[in-house]
Amino acid sequence: MHLEIPGPVGPLEALLDEPRDDTTHGAAPPRAVVVFAHPHPQQGGTMHTKAVFQGAKGLVRIGCAVLRFNFRGVGRSPGTFDEGAGEAGDYRAALDWKAARYPGVPLWAAGFSFGAWIALEAGAVDPRVSILVGIAPPVNRPAYTFTHTLETTKPKFFVQGDLDELCPLKDLWAFYAKLKEPKELVVIDGASHLFEGKTREVGEAIEDLLGDYE
User: Fold this and answer.
1) Distance (Å, rounded) from C-alpha 9 to C-alpha 83?
2) What distance in Å separates the CA atoms of residue 128 and residue 173, rounded to the nearest whole number?
3) Strand partners, 158
4) From 15's CA, which of 6, 45, 107, 157 has a CA 20 to 30 Å away?
5) Structure confidence by residue, pLDDT tens digits, 175-190
6) Which domain range does residue 21 map to?
7) Nearest C-alpha neighbor of 132 from the set 142, 102, 148, 97
8) What sign for the dihedral angle of Cα 200, 206, 209, 211?
9) How many separate domains does the chain show?
10) Alpha helix (H) ranges present in the chain?
């Protein structure tokens, strides 16, 4: 479902994917609702980035309603890139919209690369968010601090390629070691930062991590 949601500098272009009821062929009550953030806006990241698309599909397959949206200045979302501060505001607005649409349903925060930084940090401090999901988070970049992520005791789930050239696996392992429990990590063999040729495995990894999680 294509839609627009309120954002700090104007309506944000978004897509909502809901689980389906195989009996009625209508929308099924979601197990959880997820806001999924895309990679860096100035490096081609959008809500249609393949790993975001496949990650969202994996979440839908385990019963989640997933909102993808374009940060300010991307697609039809107004505004200009704001070095992360404005994008964090966009993400919080998406969380607000999602929580209002599905009151009482568990709320999860997810993101890929730059979007993982935004989602993890916003979700760590938002009391409504119960689970954090990071795909190839840029933990080795000095500009991106993960202070709140490191402090939180919320469940944290990660997917990483073992050939990630921008955020090397060794750096993620070092970061992961500092995180508080509970936490889990799936490493995809042969996958680069953008998971070229491996994006379907991103969705499958999320299913493996969260499919049976209570």
Assistant:
1) 15
2) 28
3) 134, 185
4) 157
5) 999 999 999 999 999 9
6) 2-210
7) 148
8) negative
9) 1
10) 50-61, 85-101, 114-125, 147-151, 169-178, 199-210
Q: Give the residue from 92, 86, 136 showing the smallest Cα distance to 114.
A: 136
126's CB contacts (< 8 A; 6+ apart) are 92, 95, 107, 109
C-alpha span between 123 and 113 (Å, rounded) = 15
Q: Report cis status (omega within 30 of 0) of the bond before 182.
A: yes
CATH number, domain with residue 186: 3.40.50.1820
136 in Cβ contact with 161 (< 8 Å): yes
What is the per-residue pLDDT across 72-124, written as a single tens digit (0 to 9) for each? 999 999 999 999 999 999 999 999 999 999 999 999 999 999 999 999 999 99
SS3 213: coil
Radius of gyration of the chain (CA): 16
